[in-house]
Amino acid sequence: MNSDSDLQIAGDILEVPHLLRTPREHPATVAEFVGLARSVAADRAQWEHLVEYDATTRWYHRLRTGPGYEVWLLSWVPGQGSGLHDHGRSSGVLTVLDGTLTERTEQGTRALGAGAQRVFAPGYVHEVVNDTLEPAISLHVYFPGLTEMPMHTACARRTGAEPVDAVTA
Description:
alpha+beta
């Protein structure tokens, strides 16, 4: 029987710094942006005190920026919606923090409750609406930062990839 431990065979990994991956200061992959959105969503003390509700228009606040991305906080009173739009060259992660929002696309309609996330690519056309009787709050991460939001009159042919569901537990 061999009594050598993994440490004796491979050596101490902490003694081999070139094998250690340097932690990234900012997200760079879709999974990391989803993780950023989940992390911000979980830290209510970071955003809850900032939320305002405006009966005349959707309220929004840029919460954070980083190299090539922005994080936005939005509130939606009953009946408010985004209108049919895309996000230009930006990809994004939409996370519902409180309440329920409805997403409408050419593919159909989906209710998004608190904790639900949608990930989308550039050119993805959708409309987000608060169809409920209670206010809602959402978090939006755009990469690169949002520079345009072209409005659409009808659900035109999509140029972006199908979005991916990422639901928090």
